[in-house]
From TrEMBL:
It comes from Thermoanaerobacter thermohydrosulfuricus WC1. SUPFAM superfamilies: S-adenosyl-L-methionine-dependent methyltransferases. This is tRNA 5-hydroxyuridine methyltransferase. It is an enzyme of class 2 (transferase). PROSITE patterns: SAM_OMT_I (PS51682). Catalyzes the methylation of 5-hydroxyuridine (ho5U) to form 5-methoxyuridine (mo5U) at position 34 in tRNAs. GO terms for biological process: tRNA methylation. S-adenosyl-L-methionine binds at residues 67, 84, 112-113, 130. Its EC number is 2.1.1.-. Keywords: Magnesium, Metal-binding, Methyltransferase, S-adenosyl-L-methionine, Transferase, tRNA processing.
Length: 212
């Protein structure tokens, strides 16, 4: 996911709206090629949290904590559990949580999501997935287990740079991910316990609502 200077300007507008100086995080992400939520996805995250007012949020893929902070700031009563496999990014995220004064409502677990998820038992009202795209299928069953009644799962970058809908000029090394993402989308739409739509936000955002 590429972050342009126009994206940065727009994200700074969002940062001002949230009342927290996210510009340092944006600059760090831009300079170090660390993917963070696209501006429109970040705004949607804030919107859905404000609308749903979840008690518990689970996030897969913390990075430097950008989207984590946005969700925590959107609703002061929410608690967030976030999983990050990169220990260096996890440490940076922890510092950012302190700066944002939300560290008391965020639990960061450092490890591989495939290994962490089976050990979680709490139910979550909102789950945000922004991790390794090729692993979404592996996350799927465990996340359904952890999703509360009428809960929502947001799957970011679901269209993988647009290659999922148009594989023209897809490099060989990316084809496996493209095929796996297509398979995953088919699984979502065939699942009768979830109602899923794909929104044209960022690199494609799938929203799955748990139906009983």
């Amino acid at each position: 996911m590429e972050i342009t200077r126009n994206d940065i300007k727009f994200i700074r507008w969002i940062a001002h709206k949230f009342g927290y100086p996210l510009d340092e995080m944006e600059k760090y992400a831009y300079e170090n090629y660390i993917p963070i939520a696209k501006p429109e996805v970040a705004d949607f995250l804030s919107f859905i949290v404000k609308l749903k007012k979840p008690n518990n949020i689970l996030e897969i893929g913390t990075a430097i904590g950008y989207s984590t902070i946005i969700m925590a700031k959107a609703y002061s009563e929410v608690s967030v559990v976030t999983i990050e496999r990169d220990i260096n990014l996890a440490e940076i995220a922890k510092e950012n949580f302190k700066k944002a004064k939300v560290e008391d409502r965020i639990e960061l677990i450092c490890g591989e999501a495939q290994q962490v998820l089976p050990n979680l038992t709490k139910m979550y009202d909102l789950i945000f997935v922004d991790a390794a795209k090729g692993q979404y299928i592996e996350f799927y069953k465990e996340l359904k287990r952890l999703l509360s009644k009428e809960g929502v799962i947001l799957w970011d970058n679901i269209l993988y740079k647009g290659y999922v809908v148009n594989e023209k000029n897809v490099k060989h090394k990316r084809r496996t991910i493209v095929y796996r993402m297509r398979e995953f989308i088919e699984i979502l739409y065939q699942d009768k316990t979830l109602y899923t739509v794909i929104l044209p936000l960022g690199d494609g955002l799938a929203v799955s609502f748990k139906e009983e």
